[in-house]
Amino acid sequence: MNNTTEKRHMGLKALNRASNTAIYILLILISVIWLIPFVFIVLQSFRVESTYQVGYVIPHQWGLQNYINLWNSDFKRWYLNTFIIALAAAVLTTVIQLCMSYTLSRFRFKMRGPLMRFMLILGMFPGMLTMIILYRVLSDIGLTQANAVPGLILVSVASSGMGYYVSKGFFDTIPKSLDEAARVDGATRLQVLYKIILPLAKPIVIYTILTAFMGPWGDYVFARYVAMGTSAGYNVAVGMYSWLSADQIANWYTTFCAGGVIVAVPVTILFLCLQKYYVEGVTGGAVKG
Amino acid sequence: MASVKLTDVKKVYDNNVVAVHDFNLNIKDKEFVVFVGPSGCGKSTTLRMIAGLEEISGGTVEIDGEVVNDLQPKDRGIAMVFQNYALYPHMTVYDNIAFSLRLKKVPEDVIYDKVTKAAEILGITEYLMRKPRALSGGQRQRVAIGRAMVRDSKVFLMDEPLSNLDAKLRNQMRAEIILLRQKLDTTFIYVTHDQTEAMTLADRIVIMKDGYIMQVGTPDEVFDMPDNLFVAEFIGAPKMNIVKTKLVLENGKYYVTPFGAKIPVDGDKGKALADKKVKAGDVLLGVRPEHIELASEADHAIPCKLIVDEMMGSELHLHVDTEDGTRLIVRVPTLDLSKEDRKKLVAGAKLYITFEGKAMHLFDPATEKNLLT
Amino acid sequence: MKQYSDLEFLRLSKWQRFCHKLIAFFCAIPRAIANFFKNIGKTVVKFFRKAGAEFKDIGQTFTQGDWRTKTSFLVMGFGNLTHGQILRGIMFLLFEVVFIVYMITTGGYWMSMLPSLGKQGPTTEYDPIYDSYTTVYHDNSFKILLYGVLTIFFIIAFIYTWRTNVKQCKTIDQIIKRGGKLKSDKDDLRSMVDEQFYKTLLALPLTGILVFTVLPIVFMILVAFTNYDGAHNGYANNLFTWVGLDNFNTMLSWQGGAGGTQSYAATFGEILAWTLMWAFLATFTNYFLGMFVAMMINKKGIHLKKVWRTILVMTIAIPQFISLLYVSKMFARNGLINLALLDLGWIKEPLPFWEDATWARVSVVLINIWIGIPHLMLIATGILMNIPADLYESARIDGANAWQQYSKITLPYMLFITGPYLLTSFTGNMNNFNVIYLLTGGAPTNVAASGAAGSVGHTDLLITWLFKITTGAESQYYLASVVGILVFVVVALISLVVYNVLPSIKNEEDFQ
Question: Which residues of B touch A191 (CB under 8 A)?
């Protein structure tokens, strides 16, 4: 009998070890698949012998030529444009979204239910539909093409209140009795917000800033629409997309890779530093919202 | 230090659920009133309406003669202790207690005096620099009380302040609240679902059910003269035994006939029945477990079988079944039991029980109202 | 249908239970539909009742009010002003003045032109001073429609404000009768950061949404009933005008186009089918694989959890346009993969990743997995860690194996918590412009659909099609707007059904 129990125990252990090994192999495989394209981009950005796509990864000749090309192109301007938009969006979007989500989480007013339902329905319309009119309105007030940056900021910030779900989900997890205690203690609603709630909502504030800042870096459609072919109004996405069109790609492919590195590295570093808050926001607010 | 007067106070939620029906109550200055009732009876809602945390759907709330319906909580001169303490997690104990004073722009040295004095009374001086996270449940509760103390408020509201504590700590804190009350000398309104807390703390108890007040009275009144069946069953532990039986009237004397026995309703209770000219018929008979006595076969006693015996220390709770299968609870002080008698009290044993007329409560089976009051 | 009591139901076999539930589900549909219309009816009745009550109240306020109240019916804010509520009074009065001035100067014109959307297009006229012909512009249909809608908004706002003004007069009368104290300007200002703080907080976000989302959407819905396109841009070339339901007829007609191309309805159906299939695949592949990866990383005994997680999370940070464009080119005909495989001699012809319809569709789904898993992994990790460990412990004692633990505990728990997320992610994927547009641009071209506006491709979603229609040579905005409305209808229908099935959405407060 002792023998069989021992066997059973051994079996369990062996099985566990086998499954763990399988998982390790899978995880390594996954990591490779997920990282490889980015490794390729970096490697190709240092390739100088040719500027078009080739069938190998490791450059035959290393150099910084692609980065020099970047510097000499309009890329600087696009980068600056995007950075300004991202910065403005990070500040304004955060303010607007926090106002919205805090209110919907904490106040019970007559129009709250209808308002939330209305925004839900509004969100079912494809946002792209509004592009046509917004473009014409922006062009009427002169905020397109070379002046695309303020136009883009305006449009991306104005409707950001609709994206209140994640932060509302977070606010909902802060006990309401804290608000009530503070109000009994003599705080106005405004004081409750900045003395009690905001200090406790640090993770979601950082999450909102981070996502709002990262958004514009990948914004393509509307940015293209608003810039309407004027390079000075491009953001990085629109500008770099133009390098990959059929007639440009042979000359610009490796420069695109270099640009990709320049765009991705700072954003990624920032993201990794604030990773903790991002994870908290996604897992805390996103699912509940 | 103020009176609180509630006139026809009503709470109707958006979905037309009525949480509190016309609530009328006069709370005197420096009185300790406890709202008690099962969960969902509207006791917390009423308290929160007094605090201003819940909108008042109808009627008026007056504090110190002033209608406060439209005042913000902070302007009502109240302090409140919450069930889950509601301590601000990002502030130290000191800052928590000082919070309300700082909002009032009280000078820091005055704040220092007040906070340290409150901390001393509550015995939390050594924790002043800690964050709430680092405190035990009892300590957090003390901080919450301290926060309410320094406000020098007219009315002290407490919403189930002890229900998050374990049994032992709860008893201890209960005693401390009594002491606190003596020190503060202000009006208290206290909400709980625990009848023991209500009985021990209150000057007057307000018993609520489904948004209605069932009875208002001193602990003695609600215990001895419950207005209705609900109060009778709610107050007292273990709860009152209720038996369906008949009231008979013979030669101007009332008797009840539970389980074939015939027990006279004598003394004050008999007189009360006669005064009210109660008719004979079906009644609900209530007897508290501590008013049932073990007897020998000879006295016109009710035979029954012991099902479970619970040893509580100073007393014994016997769950017995009568011959028709009705379950009754009998409370026997262990001090009176001889060792031999105690040994006989095991599951399956045959017992005889009896009770006196003066211990009886009689209720109308239709209205559930007390027939004696 | 036979009704079972709970106890009877428990005696049924699995198959019988399933059939019973299925039948019950379908039997409930007619009643649900009936209820839906009943509710609409009730809402309408309620609306009219409420409107009636409003008018009655307005009348009463007028007849019972004093001269100040009566004046307020014409001069808004008069009641407030004469009772010392200067701030409120001035706001009311100012709004009234602005409204009247606006209506007289421009609003009236826009409203009068709204039914026709402009009478006179641009004309070529002889200019005697410069001795040349110049184009003279007259009405502007675009502006008429836009400002017309804005004016209607403004009128509604005015009526609402006027009503508020009347209500306030009534409240003032009541308070004075009761001998109460009126709120002073100081009280009003203070309440802006206290009881009324929500209004202060919502003012900016809601204005933004109103101007930049509601107004454009109303405008675009209206465009679906006009002939607004590149050739009728309403100003520089031709005016556009109302055409009724013509555009919907075009979009939903089964009439084939010239040269044997398929009808609009067929094209729309084809794209819709792929859109739904894509949304389904994209959502659920990501969901299950993301959960799988999260479970692997979370498994007890796996080391370096943080490293695995960080590697995946890092890819979230890299802007999608870089990764998508790069991968798109990597799989292109002359991209890295094909060139490398050719060099190695493994293939003779480049693989048609983006040239063949099936290849392209499979490729976008696979690449979308690559894009989406890290995010799902994060969400799943958060939820998995929240599942009470004692559930698993009790299941293990009950004898459940790993698969049973997953299917009886993990999965139901995840599905319950993530129900709302799945819905938004499904509709989000239906409108996932970036992935499709940056990867394939809709390619390969759908030859059969060449009669339809925009160059329709096999991987085009409704949303990318909409984009192509507006940016195409003829810019048929009216068709784009019809597509947009239809997308809304589809999304709304799906949401409605799911909402009524999911328990976790219905009770918002349950989770607070």
Answer: 103
From the options 2.40.170.20, 3.50.50.60, 1.10.1060.10, 1.10.3720.10, give the CATH code of C258-504: 1.10.3720.10
Q: Do the chains contact at A181 and B88, CB–CB below 8 Å?
A: yes
C229 DSSP β-pair partners: C232
What span, in angstroms and rounded, lies between the C-alpha atoms of A133 and A38? 38
Whether residue B8 is found in the same domain as residue B151 = yes
Q: Quote the pLDDT of residue C123.
A: 81
Residues of C in contact with A23 (CB under 8 A): 296, 299, 302
**Chains near A, with 3+ CB pairs < 8 A?**
B, C
Residue-wise pLDDT tens digits, C34-73? 888 898 999 999 999 999 998 998 888 888 888 888 888 8
Q: Which of A258, A257, A70, A73 is nearest to C325 (CA)?
A: A257
Q: How far apart are CA A57 and CA B59, in angstroms?
A: 80
Is the pLDDT reported for residue C319 higher than 90?
Answer: no
Query: Model's pTM, two decimal places?
Result: 0.86
The model's confidence at residue A1, banded by pLDDT at 50, 70 and 90, is very low
Shortest distance between the Cα of B74 and any Cα of chain A, in A, equals: 4
Please give the full DSSP string across C240-285, using - where no structure is assigned: --B-TTHHHHHHT-----GGGPPPHHHHHHHHHHHHHHHHHHHHHH
Inter-chain contact A177–B147, Cβ cutoff 8 Å? no
Chain C residue nearest residue A190, CA to CA:
C193
C223 contacts C145 by C-beta, under 8 angstroms: yes
CB contact under 8 A, C220 and A130: yes
Rounded Cα gap, residues C507 and A88, in angstroms: 36
**A160 and A186 in one domain?**
yes
Give the residue numbers spanning the domain of A257: 74-286
Amino acid at A118: F
Contacts of C330 in chain A (CB under 8 A): 37, 40
For residue range A193-233, what is the model confidence (pLDDT) as tens digits?
A: 999 999 988 888 999 999 899 888 888 888 888 888 788 88
